[in-house]
Amino acid sequence: MTVADVLLLALGAVAVGSGALVVTSSHLVRSGLYLVVSLGAIAGLYLVLGAELVAWVQILVYVGAVVVLLLFAVMLTRAPIGPSPDLDRPALPAALIGGGIGIGLAVLFADAFRWVRHPYPEPATAERVGEQIFGAWVLPFEVISILLLSALVGAIVLSRPDIGARAATEGD
Amino acid sequence: MPLWLDLLIRVAAVMAGFLVLPLVIGQAEHKVMAHMQGRVGPMYAGAFHGWAQLVADGVKFVQKEDITPRDADRAVFQLAPIVALFPYLVVILTIPLGPGLVAQSLDIGLFLVLAVLGIGVVAVLMSAWSSANKYSLLGGVRGAAQLLGYELPLVLAAASVAMAAGTLSLPGIVEAWQPWWLIWQAPAALVFFIAGLAEIRRPPFDMPIADSELVFGYMTEYTGLRFAFFLLAEYVGIVVIAALTTVLFLGGWHGPFEETFGWLWTLLKIGALSFVIIWLRVTYPRLREDQLQRLCWLVLVPVSLAQLVLTVAVKSLL
C-alpha cells in the first residue's frame, strides 16, 4: 500500500462515516455540519487523485455555498439545539435503497475494473482542464451554461412578486 | 537542504507571520484610531507608547474563565472559533512575499484562496446557532447573508485579474503584472477591496456584529481564549485581504530594487492597505442591512461584470 492508498482509504472512511451520520443524526443542524465534513473529505479524495481544480471547486461550491444555504434555510425555519425526536423518517426503506445502491455500484465497479491496472493520469492543471473544456467539450459546456442561465432567470421571476403576480393575474 | 528542515522552516515562517502581523495591525489600529480621534491611545504597557498593549490583552484573555452557556451545543460552540481561524492560516501559506519567496507555490493558488475563504461562513453559522442566544442567531443570519452575497463580486473581480494575467497562480499573476494594469484593473481592485472588507466584517460592513443593537452578534457568548481567537481571526483577516489586494492588483513585490527588496515592497503595500482599512473604520458609519445588500447586488456585481467585459476586450485587442 502506498501513501496515496492509505490516504484514499482514510478519507473514504471519513466521507462514508460522516455521510451516515448526516442521515442518522437526530440533531437537525448537526447533520448539516456532518455534511460539511463529508463533502470536505470528498474534496480531499480529489486532491489525492491529483484533481486539484475539482477539489477546490468542490470546497467553493458545496462547502462554501450549497451547505451554507441549506444551514441558512434550516436556521430560518426550525433549528432547535439538541435532538428532535419527533422527526418521522422511514428508516428501513431508506436504508434498503441507500445500501442497495451503494453495494450494487460497488459490485458493478469491482466487476468492471477487477484486473485492470490504471496508471494515475497526469495532474489536472488549470491549463489542461481549460484546453479540454473549451476544446473537446465545448458543446456540453455551453448547454450546461444555458441550463444554469435559465435556472437563474427562473429564480428571479419566482422570487420577484411584481413580475410573478402580474403574470398570474394576466393568465387568469 | 533535507525535506524536513525545509518544511520546518516554511511552517515556522508562516506561523510567525500568522502570529506577529495581526499583533502589529492590532496595535496600529489602537494608535491610528486614537490619533484620528484626538486621543493618544494605549501609553503605559511596555513603557514605550504602549507597544505591549496587545500582549497584555492576550494574557488577560488567557486568564479569563472559558464559559460555555448551559443551553449551548457544546461541541459546535467550542469548535467554531477554530473553524473561523483555520481558513486564514491556509491562505497565508499561498501568499508570495517576493520572487520565489512563498510558503507553498500552487498552480491554482487563487482558486484555493477563494475556496478556503468561503469556509468562514460555516464558522459564523456554527457560532451563531450553537450559542443558544437570539442576538447571536440574528447576527449569524445577517453574517451569512452578507458573506454569501459579497463572495460573488470578490470572485468576479479576482477572475478579471486572473484572465488578464492568464494564470491562476498567485506568483504568476504578480510576474505578469504591469504598472498600467493599475488603470485597466482599477474597478476590479476597488470591488475586490470593498467586497474583501465585507468578507472580514469590518466597519462599515459590521452589521452582523453591530454592537449597539446585537450586543456582539455571533460572538456575544464567547469569553476568554475563544473570544480572542475570533479577534485574532479578524486581524488576520485584515492582513489577508490587504495581502491579496496587494498581490492581485498592486503588483506585489514590483518596485525599485525588487530583486533584493521585493519582500519589503510587499509588506509596505500590505501595511498601507491595512492603514486604509483602519481609516475606513474611523471614517464611515455602519451600513444598514438593506443598504449593505443593495451596494453588493446593484453596484459591486454589475461593476465587476462590466470589468470582465473590459478585461476581455482589452486582452483581445492586444
Automatic annotation (TrEMBL), chain B:
GO terms for molecular function: NADH dehydrogenase activity; oxidoreductase activity, acting on NAD(P)H, quinone or similar compound as acceptor; quinone binding. It comes from the Bacteria. InterPro entries: NADH_UbQ_OxRdtase_su1/FPO. It holds the Pfam family NADHdh. Keywords: Cell membrane, Membrane, NAD, Quinone, Translocase, Transmembrane, Transmembrane helix, Ubiquinone. GO terms for biological process: aerobic respiration. It is a multi-pass membrane protein. Its EC number is 7.1.1.-. NDH-1 shuttles electrons from NADH, via FMN and iron-sulfur (Fe-S) centers, to quinones in the respiratory chain. The immediate electron acceptor for the enzyme in this species is believed to be ubiquinone. Couples the redox reaction to proton translocation (for every two electrons transferred, four hydrogen ions are translocated across the cytoplasmic membrane), and thus conserves the redox energy in a proton gradient. This subunit may bind ubiquinone. This is NADH-quinone oxidoreductase subunit H.
